[in-house]
């Protein structure tokens, strides 16, 4: 091939390559099998995520994400970090995905995108056994109500009592507020139903019980990604659908949640956030 023909052929090939690139959908749902998606979580929220004695993360969210990665042909690695750092880390690119019992809210959807709901919960009130809590008025009359800063329990109690109400005591993690309740420093704790039900079930000698109030609506957990990352949302939704359809979701659910806990913590199949 002479030089002139070689140049013409090279230009043609370049044009074809550019055309192919231009024709690709930047929001394609195809997973990148070579990329390792960094998954952030706060592993202090059993049974969804916690740490083993060796420092490894485990729980419902971990098993679900691993099953989704297998079904969707993508790789993941988990990173345990403080709750308050999860969303900033997602926004600045330190992590790609957040799965950590994150409730889908309109406020959060302003700064991040979510997968379809994968778990349905509500807020409950954890109190010493025998303590009467029949309505939000009983909650309002308590001296101290514990919540985790920035979690949905914080939003719910702030809505009832006012965000600046001195009766609200804010803590960094669920284990910390429960310990404070057990030590007598709080009258109650408001947090996610599945987490509280799991604690009460596994700690029967602590003398605690939980109550559901009509003031707290049903919520849905979703998997968060950076705002505008439609490809990641599609990838996660496709994988979640496969895991549900294969029956693997039900197996993972059964591993962590007993049948008698179903009313407090059940698989979320709702089509919209409530």
Helix and strand succession?
Answer: HEEEHEHEEEEHEHEHEHEEEHH
* Number of extended strands: 14
Task: Specify the overall morphology.
Answer: globular
What gyration radius follows from the Cα positions, in whole Å? 23 Å
CATH-defined topology of the largest domain: D-Maltodextrin-Binding Protein, domain 2
Number of domains: 2
Biggest sheet character: 5 strands, mixed
What is the CATH superfamily classification of the largest domain? Periplasmic binding protein-like II
* CATH-level-2 architecture of the largest domain: 3-Layer(aba) Sandwich
What is the helix fraction of residues, given as a range? 25-40%
Q: Please report the distance between the alpha carbons of the first and last residues.
A: 67 Å
Average pLDDT, rounded to a whole number, is 86
Spans of at least 5 consecutive residues with low confidence: 1-29, 259-274
Helix- and strand-based class?
A: alpha/beta
Summarize this structure briefly.
This protein has 274 residues and is α/β, with parallel strands linked by helices. The chain has helices at residues 3-23, 60-72, 83-92, 136-140, 152-161, 174-182, 193-202, 230-246, 248-256, and strands at 36-41, 50-51, 57-58, 75-80, 97-98, 112-114, 119-121, 123-128, 145-148, 168-171, 188-192, 208-212, 219-221, 224-226. The longest helix is centred in the N-terminal third of the chain and has 21 residues, at 3-23.
């Amino acid at each position: 091939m002479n030089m002139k023909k070689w140049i013409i052929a090279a230009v043609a090939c370049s044009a074809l390559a550019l055309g192919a690139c231009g024709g690709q959908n930047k929001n394609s749902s195809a997973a990148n099998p070579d990329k390792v998606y960094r998954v952030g979580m706060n592993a202090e929220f059993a049974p969804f995520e916690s740490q083993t004695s060796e420092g490894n993360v485990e729980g419902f969210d971990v098993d679900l994400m691993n099953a989704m990665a297998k079904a969707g042909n993508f790789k993941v690695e988990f990173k345990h970090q403080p709750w308050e750092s999860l969303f900033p880390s997602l926004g600045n690119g330190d992590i790609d995905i957040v799965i950590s019992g994150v409730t889908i809210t309109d406020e959060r959807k302003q700064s991040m995108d979510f997968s379809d709901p994968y778990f349905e919960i509500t807020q409950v009130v954890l109190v010493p056994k025998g303590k009467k809590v029949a309505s939000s008025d009983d909650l309002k009359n308590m001296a101290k109500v514990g919540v985790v800063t920035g979690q949905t329990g914080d939003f719910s109690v702030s809505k009832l009592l006012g965000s600046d109400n001195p009766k609200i005591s804010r803590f960094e993690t669920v284990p910390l507020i429960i310990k404070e309740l057990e030590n007598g420093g709080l009258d109650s704790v408001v947090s996610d139903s599945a987490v509280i039900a799991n604690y009460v079930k596994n700690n029967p000698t602590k003398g605690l019980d939980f109550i559901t109030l009509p003031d707290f609506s049903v919520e849905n957990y979703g998997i968060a990604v950076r705002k505008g990352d439609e490809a990641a949302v599609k990838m996660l939704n496709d994988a979640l659908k496969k895991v549900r359809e294969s029956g693997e979701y039900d197996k993972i659910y059964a591993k962590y949640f007993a049948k008698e806990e179903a009313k407090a913590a059940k698989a979320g199949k709702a089509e919209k956030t409530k």
